[in-house]
Specification:
The chain is an alpha+beta fold. The protein folds into four domains: about 190 residues, P-loop containing nucleotide triphosphate hydrolases (Rossmann fold); about 90 residues, Elongation Factor Tu (Ef-tu), domain 3 (Beta Barrel), CATH 2.40.30.10; about 80 residues, Alpha-Beta Plaits, CATH 3.30.70.240; about 80 residues, OB fold (Dihydrolipoamide Acetyltransferase, E2P) (Beta Barrel). The protein is built from 14 helices and 35 strands. An eight-stranded antiparallel sheet has the order 12-11-17-8-9-16-13-14, with no helix packed on it. The protein has a seven-stranded mixed sheet with strand order 2-3-1-4-5-6-7, sandwiched between helices. β4, α4 and β5 form a beta-alpha-beta unit. It is globular and about 85 Å long.
Length: about 625
C-alpha cells in the first residue's frame, strides 16, 4: 500500500541556518493558524532554555496540510551536541529538507546530518535559505553543496537532488535564484512531487518503531513513532520488543490512548495505519528504540546505532557548608533517580554509578549537551556538584586514542594570526584556510580535550566577532599532555561574608568572582590569579575601627566589578582539583578539598609523586 495522502519529512541543518523559522512560515501558510490568531516566532522552540539560548534542543513534530496531503514535519536540533536527536528521528521519516545558509554555506553539522540521511538512503531537497542576506553567495554555496555530496559518496539520484531558494523569514521560495518567490508553494509542491509517499502492508501484523519519548503528568510516558506495518487502535493489546535485546521476553501492554499530530496539537484518534506518525500512552516501560508489535507476531525492528559519547563529568551530592540551603532535591537517591530518568528520552547520554554512592559518572556528546542537563536539573530544584569534563579515551589496535574535533572558525582577517597561534599551542592541525568576503574561514583538526576553555579565549581574541563551530571527527592516537589553563585560583581561607576592605586587598592579586556582602566558605574560589598558582586569600577581612575612622570609610574603596560566570564558562574554567557547586539560585566554584591545610598537604604529595615519576 502507498499512502499518497501523506509525506513524512525532517528538516536538518547546521545550527542557526533557519530551520525553526522556516517551520513557522510553513505552519502559517499551511493553514494551521486562524487569520486573526496571534502567533509567536520560533513556535517549535517551546522550552525555556530553547527560547533563552535561541537554539533547538529537542526534536519536535508538527504537521501541515497542502493539496489534501498531510505533511508530517520534524524540526531537528542543529547543534552538534544534540546530534543523537537527529540520528534517531531520521528513522521516522522518508526524506529530508537540507537547509544551508546562503552566506555561510555547508558547515560541520551540515556534513554530519547529511551523512546520516544519505546512509539511510533518504531523498534530499536542498533548500538554500536566507537568500535575501546582503552577503549571500548563492552560486558558490551551490558548488560547495555538490562537493559535499560527492565527498560523502552520494548516489547519482542524491547528486541530482533538487534545489529550492528560500527566505524563511519572508516566507518565500523559488526554483530560480534570480526570480524572487512570493510564498512557499514551490517548496510544498517539490515536497509532494519529490518526496516518496510512505509504503507498507496495511493488512500485516503491527510494527511501530518508537523514536521519541514524551512525558505528561496525567497520562505518564508517551511514545512517539511511525507505523511501519499494519494498523494500531486504542485499547489494543500489544507487545513491547527490542531488536538489540532479543533474549528478553516481550512485555505485554495496552494502548490506552492514541494521538496524531496536526499543527501544534495532538488530536485523539481511534486508529492509525501504516505510514502515520502517532503518539500513544499506556505503555509505562516504553523506551526509545522499542518496537510495538501485535501479540501474534512479535517481530522487533532494528534501531539506528547512535554515536557514542565522547565526554564525561562526575555529578555528586553537594557537600559544601551551604549544602541544602537552596535546593529542593539534595540526596543521592533523588539525584540518581533523576539522572537515570533522563536516559529514557536522551539516547546520547550514558549514566553510571561512581566509586561512591554519592557519585555518578555522566557521559554526553559535548560540553553543551551536559550543561543543558545540569541547567535543566537546577531549574527543577536539584542541588549538586559537578567536576570538570574529561574525554573518554579508546584503545584501538593496542594504541591509546582520543576523540578529535573538526573545528570551523569564521574570523575577521585581522585576527587570524592570534587564532592560529592559540590553536597551534593546543595541538591543532590546520586543514584549510579560505577567504570568505572580508573574513577568513579556517578549519582545524584538534583533540576534544584541547578545546576546553578555548571558546572564551577565542571570543576575546576576535573581539567578539568570531564564529566557532565544532563537531566530533573520529578517534586518533593520543597527542600527549598539553596545558590548557595558565592561571590559578584565589581561594577563600575562611568562612564569612565578604567585605569591601577584604575584596579591595584581594583584587590586587587578580580578578574577582564575588562582590561585597557575599557569603563564602573556606575552599570556595573567589577569583582568578594571573599566575599558575593558587593563592589563599581572606575576602572577609575587616579593618579595625579607631576613634578617627568611621564605619562608612570602606565605601570609598573602589572595586572592580566581579566576573559572573555562566554555567558553560564555569565548566570551562575549573581544573581537576576543582568543582562547580550548582543550586537553583547559585553557581559557585570551589576546591574539591575545602580545608586549606589538607589541600596544601595533598598538593605537596602530588608534586613529590610527579617528581619521582
Amino acid at each position: 500500500m502507498t499512502r499518497t495522502d501523506l509525506r513524512n519529512i525532517a528538516i536538518i541543518a547546521h545550527v542557526d541556518h533557519g530551520k525553526t523559522t522556516l517551520v513557522d512560515e510553513m505552519l502559517k501558510q499551511g493553514g494551521i493558524y486562524r487569520d486573526n490568531q496571534e502567533t509567536v516566532t520560533c513556535v517549535m522552540d517551546s522550552g525555556d532554555l530553547e527560547r533563552e539560548r535561541g537554539i533547538t534542543i529537542l526534536a519536535k513534530n508538527t504537521a501541515v496540510h497542502y493539496k489534501d496531503v498531510k505533511i508530517n514535519i520534524v524540526d531537528t536540533p542543529g547543534h552538534a551536541d544534540f546530534g543523537g536527536e537527529v540520528e534517531r528521528i531520521l528513522k521516522m521519516v522518508n526524506g529530508v529538507l537540507l537547509l544551508v545558509d546562503a552566506a555561510e554555506g555547508p558547515m560541520p553539522q551540515t556534513r554530519f546530518v547529511l551523512q546520516r540521511a544519505l546512509e539511510l538512503n533518504h531523498r534530499v531537497i536542498i533548500v538554500i535559505n536566507k537568500i535575501d542576506k546582503p552577503d549571500a553567495r548563492i552560486g558558490a554555496v551551490e558548488d560547495e553543496i555538490l562537493e559535499l555530496l560527492m565527498d560523502l559518496n552520494a548516489s547519482d539520484e542524491q547528486l541530482d537532488s533538487p534545489m529550492i531558494y528560500c527566505s524563511g523569514r519572508a516566507g518565500t521560495a523559488s526554483e530560480d535564484p534570480n526570480v524572487p518567490g512570493t510564498d512557499l508553494k514551490p517548496l510544498f509542491d517539490k515536497i509532494l512531487d519529490y518526496m516518496p509517499a510512505p509504503e507498507g502492508d496495511e493488512n500485516g501484523e503491527l510494527q511501530l518503531l518508537v523514536s521519541s519519548i514524551d512525558y505528561n503528568d496525567y497520562v505518564g510516558r508517551i511514545g512517539i513513532g511511525r507505523i511501519e506495518r499494519g494498523k494500531i487502535r486504542t485499547n489494543q493489546d500489544v507487545y513491547i520488543c527490542n531488536y538489540h535485546n532479543a533474549d528478553a521476553a516481550p512485555k505485554r501492554t495496552k494502548i490506552v490512548s492514541l494521538y496524531q499530530i496536526d499543527g501544534l496539537r495532538r488530536v485523539p484518534v481511534d486508529s492509525a495505519m501504516v505510514g502515520d506518525i502517532v503518539c500513544f500512552s499506556g505503555a509505562e516501560n516504553i523506551t526509545i528504540g522499542d518496537t510495538i508489535t501485535s501479540l501474534t507476531a512479535p517481530e522487533p525492528l532494528e534501531f539506528v546505532k547512535v554515536s557514542e559519547p565522547t565526554l564525561e563529568m562526575t555529578f555528586s551530592v553537594n557537600d559544601s557548608p551551604f549544602a541544602g540551603k537552596e535546593g529542593k532535591f539534595v540526596t543521592s537517591r533523588q539525584l540518581r533517580d533523576r539522572l537515570y530518568r533522563e536516559l529514557l528520552k536522551d539516547v546520547s547520554l550514558r549514566v553510571q554509578d561512581g566509586e561512591t554512592t554519592d557519585e555518578f559518572r555522566v557521559a554526553g556528546r559535548g560540553e553543551m549537551h551536559l550543561s543543558i542537563l545540569i541547567e535543566t536539573m537546577r531549574r527543577e530544584g536539584y542541588e549538586m556538584t559537578c567536576s570538570n569534563p574529561r574525554v573518554l579515551y579508546k584503545e584501538i589496535d593496542g594504541v591509546k586514542c582520543e576523540p578529535m574535533e573538526r573545528v570551523t572558525l569564521d574570523v575577521p582577517s585581522e585576527y587570524v594570526g592570534a587564532v592560529v597561534e592559540k590553536l597551534g599551542q593546543r595541538k591543532g592541525d590546520l586543514l584549510e584556510m579560505n577567504p570568505v568576503g572580508s573574513r577568513m574561514r579556517i578549519e582545524y583538526s584538534i583533540p576534544s580535550r584541547c578545546l576546553f576553555g578555548y571558546r572564551s579565549e577565542f571570543l576575546t581574541a576576535t573581539r567578539g566577532e568570531g564564529i566557532m563551530n565544532a563537531i566530533f571527527d573520529g578517534y586518533q592516537p593520543y597527542r600527549g599532555e598539553v596545558t590548557m589553563r595558565f592561571t590559578g585560583s584565589l581561594v577563600a581561607s575562611e568562612a564569612g561574608e565578604t567585605t569591601r576592605y577584604g575584596l579591595y586587598n584581594t583584587q590586587e592579586r587578580g580578578n574577582l568572582f564575588v562582590g561585597p556582602q557575599t557569603p563564602v566558605y573556606e575552599g570556595m574560589i573567589v577569583g582568578e590569579n594571573p599566575k599558575n598558582d593558587d593563592i589563599s586569600v581572606n575576602p572577609c577581612k575587616k579593618k579595625q575601627l579607631t576613634a578617627i575612622r568611621s564605619a562608612g570609610a570602606d565605601e570609598k574603596l573602589l572595586l572592580t566589578p566581579p566576573i559572573i560566570f555562566s554555567l558553560e564558562e564555569a565548566i570551562e574554567f575549573i581544573t581537576d582539583d576543582e568543582l562547580i557547586e550548582v543550586t537553583p539560585k547559585s553557581i559557585r566554584l570551589r576546591k574539591k578539598i575545602l580545608n586549606t591545610e589538607l589541600r596544601m598537604k595533598a598538593m605537596m604529595k602530588a608534586r613529590r609523586e610527579a617528581e619521582k615519576s
